[in-house]
Amino acid sequence: MSDHDERRRFQRIAFDAPTELRQGQRHWPVKLLDLSLKGLLIERPIPWDADLSQNFEAVICLNDKVTQVRMQVELRHEEPARLGFICLYIDVDSMTHLHRLVELNVGDSTEMMRELCELIED
Fold first, then answer.
1. Contact 85/66 with Cβ under 8 angstroms?
2. 8 A C-beta contact, residue 55 and residue 15
3. pLDDT tens digits, residue range 31-66?
């Protein structure tokens, strides 16, 4: 297990949903690889011409295409094929949808409570 994995406190779930990354007037449709209560991992879009000094908005469309998880994110790590983002802000409705999604996939209410407590403490 890598140092990065050992430091991870939030369960990541593999999830495939239409996702868009936005920055100002720029928009990139992206492939969502996984997400957690604290961030997301995507395939690097091509072309990738973002301003790395600015934050982004990630919009994940859930099963009915109307329900969305929207979060303000910051690029935290960059690899040749993947980009990892940490959540800076998420509204209550989006957090409710994300929490339910993660809860259904984690299947352990004790683990979910631990993650929520850690999220609140951050």
1. no
2. no
3. 999 998 889 999 999 999 999 999 999 999 987 778
| Three-state SS sequence of 73-117 | EEEEEECCCEEEEEEEEECHHHHHHHHHHHHHHHCCHHHHHHHHH
Q: Which domains does the chain have, with CATH numbers?
A: 3-121 (2.40.10.220)
114, 119, 121, 122: CA torsion to nearest 10: 140
| Cα–Cα distance measured from residue 75 to residue 41, given in angstroms and rounded to the nearest whole number | 10
What the block records as the tokens of 93 is: 């409705």
Which of 66, 70, 69 is closest to 55 using CA atoms? 70
Q: Is 53 exposed, middle or buried (0-12, 13-18, 19+ CB in 10 A)?
A: exposed
The model carries a pTM of 0.79
Angle ∠(13,20,74) on CA atoms, nearest 5 = 70
Q: Phi and psi dihedrals of 8, rounded to 5?
A: -70, 125
